[in-house]
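Write out the 3D structure for:
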Amino acid sequence: MTNQFPFYGAIIIFILVYAMIIWEKFNRTVIAMTGGLVMILIGFLSQEVAIKDDIDFNTIGLLIGMMILVSITRRSGIFEAVAIWAVKVTKGYPLSLLALLSMITAIASALLDNVTTVLLIVPVTLTLTERLNINPMPFLITEILTCNIGGTATLIGDPPNIMIGSATHLTFMDFIIHLAPIATLILLVTIGLLLLLYRKELQVEEENRLQVLTLSPIEQIKDWLLLKQSLSVLALTLLGFMLHGNLHLESATIAMSGAMLLMLISREEPEEILLHVEWPTVFFFAGLFMLVGGLKSTGVIKALAEWAIHLTGGQLDLTAYLVIWLSAIASAFIDNIPFVATMIPMLHEMNAISGGNMDPVWWSLALGACLGGNGTLIGASANVIVAGIAEKNGYPISFRQFMIVAFPFMILSIIMAHFYVYLRYF
């Protein structure tokens, strides 16, 4: 009974913390940090292990670095300029705007990564909706969904894909060949259904639409020198992300290097810039990592992964189907990074036993982990970042409000992915 206490105790703490986040009576950052610290205080997780193994400083460093870059860049007025350009292209009609921003978000997420994408696109969205005096919530929810779908298509689009590629030596082109087709189909279906869902809600006053159409994108630029500096450093940083494997550098190092370089050449005041970093989001991730670290240290995630593999009896097709659904549901409710990290050695072990071609299972893991992040507001990094920026700008996204819309879309995407795996590999 004593040996089982950490196992079940960690599960109880996780469920309580998650229930309080859903309840929304307390700040989610405080709840997540408290839950993580309780794991340490009770002894389910040591501080040393939490700092060394569980708190993903690569993710946190990437977040802080990109937040600094975006904070300086937005001072040039480029986000306002892009917003006005988007309005002019779509004639200021909200549904057309929603479709345009969704496609931009998905493509950017596939070519860059979803963290960078939402940090760039959300400020533009908020500027745009403020100008048109329309509700930004449909735009923000749609951008979260399309960002995670777009990130599914490539090796660098989402952290689980990077981890799977590293563990299996699957190439950038392998991911595009195997995942881009279904990601594109899911994206088009999702955007189409979202346009139907929000068609009545997204209405703009004709006066506001015509007024914004008179504005010039060029006139929105406040500082041309800062714009050139920001775009140059941003381009270097994004190039670094694409070459990070060849450079043998982590994404956090590249992001922080770009941030410090821009602070040096722009001579912006560090105190003022750091005030614009979304610190509640950063600490929320730290708490979440500790919380999931407690589940990992007590064997909960490992037991889940082992159960999934043994349940299928070693049959490749059943394993692929179970992995896609299990990873989707798990990724919706816990961070997908430690889950994928636990599944990788399990699948390697199964491959060693069976000696078969495990590629369909790896693709199932990637699809489930990436698409499953759309299930809840804390399912993926992009979701949490968008929620943090929105709340800071006076538009808090409710956990339940997001889940009511997003979870059915997530389930639909996994059903489509399931049939894709069946038709293509079996």
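Residues 14 and 221 are 47 Å apart (CA to CA).
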